[in-house]
Q: What sequence folds into this?
């Protein structure tokens, strides 16, 4: 089939024949225009809605999976040491099982901050400070995973502790601020603002008294891994106006 024959006869004498490749491109473009002209606005709306729904469901599945995986792996990782003993601290267990420790750190960081950033984007889309907390916290987790919790190597020990403290503090602040800034949206937000604040203060006091152990370190993490997907994908925190006082 001669593609040049598809050109309108009326314009053949006025316009020189296009080179074959250019004419094929022009022909395909015209076919697309003709086809798209037959589509209604409702067709585009339906297609866009279907794609948006699929992406939304996929994002939800990924965020929930990250939390479920991190939660199960944390509970499993804790069994390598005593829950209430200093020798069973998560960082000390990492000296014996460095690969598991790395998987634990990466999975926990990914699960918590993926859900945190999703929540901030949904509820506080004008805020930007969470990205700073996320970036600095990522550096803290990197130091925690790459530097050994080893007293004999003072530099690595200091860097590990600094990174661990940075991650813990900034993540706690990020979670607390998320609920504090939504305090007036519902009673559940108000209630969990107090619960989170009390949990962080209690955990800090216990850490100062008993020093690090798996239970003290893991409880806030496990709490966050349950709370954040509950916030993002249930109606438990649905916004309700306070009754007039």
A:
């Amino acid at each position: 089939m001669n593609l040049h024959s598809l050109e309108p006869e009326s314009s053949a004498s006025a316009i020189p024949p296009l080179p074959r490749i250019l004419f094929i491109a022009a022909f395909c473009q015209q076919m697309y225009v003709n086809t798209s002209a037959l589509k209604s606005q409702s067709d585009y709306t339906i297609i866009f809605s279907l794609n948006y729904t699929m992406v939304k469901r996929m994002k939800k599945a990924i965020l929930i999976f990250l939390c479920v995986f991190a939660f199960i792996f944390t509970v499993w990782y804790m069994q390598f040491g005593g829950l209430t003993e200093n020798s069973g601290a998560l960082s000390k267990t990492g000296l014996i099982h460095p690969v598991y420790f790395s998987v634990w750190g990466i999975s926990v960081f990914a699960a918590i901050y993926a859900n945190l950033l999703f929540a901030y984007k949904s509820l506080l889309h004008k805020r930007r400070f969470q990205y700073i907390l996320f970036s600095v916290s990522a550096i803290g987790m990197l130091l925690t995973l790459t530097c050994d919790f080893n007293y004999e190597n003072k530099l690595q020990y200091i860097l590990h502790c600094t990174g661990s403290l940075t991650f813990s503090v900034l993540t706690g602040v990020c979670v607390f601020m998320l609920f504090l800034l939504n305090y007036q949206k519902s009673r559940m937000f108000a209630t969990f603002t107090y619960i989170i604040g009390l949990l962080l203060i209690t955990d800090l006091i216990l850490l100062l008294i008993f020093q690090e152990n798996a239970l003290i370190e893991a409880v806030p993490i496990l709490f966050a891994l349950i709370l954040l997907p509950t916030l993002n994908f249930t109606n438990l925190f649905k916004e309700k106006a306070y009754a007039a006082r």
Summary: Residues 183 and 190 are 5 Å apart (CA to CA). Residues 60-233 form one domain. The chain has two domains: 3-37, 60-233.
